Amino acid sequence: xxxxxxxxxxxxxxxxxxxLIPLVLAIVQLALVLHVRNTLTAAxxxxxxxxxxxxRSPAEGAAxxxxxxxxxxxxxxxxxxxxxxxxxxxxxxxEVSVNARVPALGxxxxxxxxxxxxxxxxxxxx
Length: 126
Description:
By secondary structure, the protein is of the alpha+beta class. It is built from two helices and three strands; from the N terminus they run H-H-E-E-E. It has helices spanning 8-51, 58-72; strands at residues 80-88, 91-105, 108-121. It has a three-stranded antiparallel sheet with strand order 1-2-3, with helices on one face. A hairpin with a 2-residue loop joins strand 1 and strand 2 (91-105). The protein is rod-shaped. The protein starts with 7 loop residues before the first helix and ends in a 5-residue tail after the last strand. The mean pLDDT is 89.
């Protein structure tokens, strides 16, 4: 007696999809969070370098960072940008910090808090 195998492919597809779809979505979400973090870090570093030149202030570096973030991803990630001049081992430097919250589930859901910063040695008059 021969068994009928019709419909087995549908069941196999559903069982495999239950595992693969959440895995693929998790990988995409991780890539999104890493992209935002790397973009924020690059913008903070660019703002610090900009503010470290002789004729610029830390406030101008913060403004440059906000413009970079707004142009690259979204202005909502540029709401908490701070810049200050510090001393590290007797060397003046500019530090630009960015605090942002990235939604952990696409555009909704709980957010992942990211805090990144960029540093640059302040130029001095020779």
